[in-house]
Specification:
heterodimer; A: mainly alpha; MetI-like fold; 2 domains; B: MetI-like fold; two-stranded antiparallel sheet; ABC_transporter_permease (chain B); MetI-like_sf (chain B); transmembrane (chain B); membrane (chain B); transmembrane helix (chain B)
């Protein structure tokens, strides 16, 4: 093995040399640590008392959960946490249902107007949210949707991105499967739900993760559509909390940590799916 | 003749076709309603509003192109315009270069690959408003701010960061680059993986060096990925809001408006001063720029 290596190594590129590898790994590792430094410091400071925050040691001398207890009992964080969860779960469920239903219809049915519907939906990708918020706001004011869960959720109930992603995946489902199901006398809805959907679970999981994370971290529209604190989502609530706390950085970091922990948990549990999903979405989109 | 043989069955076949069409439109009914009412109508409404003067109190008054004239004549608009493009023109190349370098080397590492990748990807899934505050804390003067404390402890001068009219924008930009880097790295790695290994093997047999392989094979074949990321990143910087808003809450877009991007201006015009018409005109400008960039992408990838 070693003999083969040495005989072949002169024409091969330098990358075979081990010290170079070690340097490369070390540099990447240090870079990676720098990337998570803000997150580490956030957690570290959230475990310190206000008198310790000038001590920049990463491991707190006497870590305490007092900040968490104070933030969770005195502030409205539990409420905001529930609001964000509720909104993100509802919007995700809606996208899973409608985006895949539309994607399936566009991929597996030949009907008049199919191309038109597809292009119309796709063209909405070109319209930035920022352009729509003013009409959405006026619409919400007219219908009394301001300051309500539905008001936060309605703009995202379906997305062109999700529809396009699901269409791409349903196209890989063989027509024979669907035809066979039709022969068995299943109705079209059952065929979609029971036969086609289980065949695209990787795409569905990617869509679910993106929609959930996207709505969990969403800031712009929830900031506009809610005015009472009871209806804030976590990111908007955190901003108002941080403004009130002014310079109590250990409290602000605790709030920030509470907003971040769920996404970290989702990431650590579903890392493989998330990375694969980003790759899928990036390449298809 | 063919028609003759099928004619007895044409009635049930037609009905099956009709039945399927009914299914199709039953599936599409709510989505068509949704896209019409929540996407297309508001788009048209935004254009319509941009020709009106409306403060939500009185009735909207049609004023033609006056909002646009006022906007293009205002120094504040051009300042915001410059800021927005500063985020884009400095931020995009830096983030692309960094993410490519990291992806290129990370791709060659086997030992601890998933772990290293996770370190770089983690910031991408964090909440922008939360991390805006973390970075804001980092940028504080000593002894509060982490960066200035470190600078002080090694005997270097202090930096004003968010309080400086020069450095506030780059400081916020760093936060935005940091937040988006993980995504770009993953996409670059996916692009690198999609290049067939045989090309590399052939080049190695021919004795082509690493750098030449990078220049002659990797970069040209990576062009679609790069174009996608340039567009994606540009659009992200043009729409920057969360970081700026959270890092400058005491004076949004400050100091002296030097960090204010277009979306923050839109937000303030619409929801602080309630000038709905003027704000709509600003969103039309944003839309036009984004449309132009998207069309540019399509054009570049078509001429490939």
């Amino acid at each position: 093995m070693a003999a083969i290596d040495t005989t072949l190594s002169p024409p091969l590129p330098m990358s075979r040399i081990k010290p170079g590898r070690i340097v490369m790994w070390t540099v990447l590792f240090i870079g990676g640590l720098l990337m998570i430094t803000p997150i580490l410091f956030m957690f570290s400071t959230s475990l310190k008392t206000s008198s310790q925050i000038y001590d920049l040691r990463l491991i707190p001398q006497s870590p305490t959960l007092a900040n968490y207890i104070e933030v969770l009992t005195e502030g409205q964080f539990p409420r905001w946490f529930l609001n964000s969860s509720f909104v993100a779960i509802c919007v995700t469920a809606s996208n899973i249902f409608f985006d895949s239903l539309v994607g399936y219809t566009l991929a597996k049915f030949r009907f008049r107007g199919r191309q038109f519907v597809f292009i119309a939906i796709l063209s909405t990708l070109m319209i930035p949210t920022e352009m729509l918020v003013i009409p959405w706001y006026l619409m919400s004011a007219n219908f009394g949707w301001l300051d309500s869960y539905w008001g936060i959720m309605f703009p995202g109930m379906m997305t062109a991105f999700g529809t396009f992603l699901m269409k791409q995946f349903f196209e890989t489902v063989p027509d024979d499967f669907i035809e066979a199901a039709r022969m068995d006398g299943l109705n079209e809805f059952t065929i979609w739900w029971k036969i086609a959907m289980p065949l695209v679970t990787p795409a569905l999981s990617a869509l679910a993760i993106f929609t959930f994370l996207g709505n969990w971290t969403a800031f712009f529209w929830p900031l506009i559509s809610t005015t009472s604190k009871e209806l804030y989502t976590l990111p908007v609530g955190l901003t108002s909390f941080a403004v009130e706390q002014a310079i109590q950085w250990e409290m602000i970091m605790t709030g920030a940590a509470i907003a971040t922990i769920p996404t970290l948990v989702v990431f650590l549990v579903l890392q493989r799916y998330i990375v694969r999903g980003v790759m899928l979405a990036g390449l298809k989109g | 003749m063919a028609m003759d043989t099928t004619s007895p069955q044409s009635a049930p076949r037609l009905s099956m076709r009709t039945r399927r069409a009914i299914w199709v439109w039953a599936f599409l009914a709510l989505p068509v309603l949704f896209y019409s009412v929540i996407r297309f109508y508001p788009t048209i409404d935004a254009f319509r509003l941009s020709f009106t003067d409306w403060n939500l109190m009185s009735k909207p008054a049609y004023i033609g192109l006056q909002n646009y004239r006022d906007m293009f004549a205002s120094a504040e608009f051009w300042k915001v315009f410059r800021n927005t493009f500063a985020y884009l023109i400095i931020g995009t190349p830096i983030s692309l270069l960094l993410s490519f370098l990291i992806a290129y080397f990370l791709d060659r590492i086997r030992f601890g690959h998933t772990f290293l990748r996770a370190l770089y990807f983690l910031p991408f899934i964090t909440t922008a408003s939360a991390m805006g505050w973390v970075w804001r804390w980092f940028y504080q003067p000593a002894p509060t701010g982490v960066i200035n404390s470190v600078l002080g402890s090694v005997g270097m001068g202090q930096l004003d960061f968010l309080r400086s009219t020069t450095w506030a924008l780059p400081s916020i930009m760093v936060t935005a680059i940091w937040a988006g880097l993980g995504f770009q790295i993953i996409i670059f790695m996916a692009g690198l993986r999609s290049i067939p290994q045989t090309y590399y093997e052939a080049a190695k047999i021919d004795g082509v060096g690493d750098f030449a392989i990078l220049r002659k094979i990797t970069l040209p074949l990576l062009k679609p990925t790069t174009v996608f990321l340039v567009v994606f990143s540009s659009i992200g910087f043009l729409r920057i809001f969360d970081q700026v808003y959270n890092m400058t809450t005491n004076d949004p877009g400050g100091p002296l408006g030097t960090t204010k991007p277009l979306v923050l201006m839109i937000y303030q015009t619409a929801f602080n001063s309630y000038q709905m018409g003027a704000a709509a005109a600003q969103t039309v400008v944003l839309f036009t720029i984004l449309l132009f960039i998207s069309l540019l992408q399509l054009w570049i990838l078509r001429t490939r």
